[in-house]
Design brief:
By secondary structure, the chain is mainly α. The chain has 4 helices and no strands. The chain has one domain. The two termini are 45 Å apart.
């Protein structure tokens, strides 16, 4: 009887550990607009790096490369300007509060 009780306690402890809300990967942290913009900026920079690499590898003609590069740089500038405007208003990253 004591062995069965120990097994039940162990199983309940495992379920509690696994499914505790803070450890649940499906629960998303609250993101602010600044967090979203920071992630977007990183994605744009990654796209610029990929574009440069593919251009140097000869996959894009110069005119198309320049057009795509200009578009990505414009988007990056708009993203950073919005981030600065939000920071000036006092909005902070959700990660900074954690």
């Amino acid at each position: 009887m004591g062995l069965i009780a120990a097994i039940v306690v162990l199983i309940l402890g495992c379920f509690t550990f696994i499914f505790w809300p803070e450890r649940n990967p499906f629960v998303q942290a609250d993101k602010t607009r600044v967090d979203y913009l920071r992630e977007r900026k990183e994605a744009i920079y990654e796209n610029l790096r990929d574009l440069n690499f593919e251009y140097l590898a000869g996959k894009y003609p110069e005119a198309e490369y320049n057009e795509q590069r200009r578009a990505l740089e414009d988007e990056a500038a708009k993203t950073m300007a919005e981030m600065e405007a939000l920071s000036a208003r006092g909005m902070r990253s959700g990660r900074a509060r954690a």
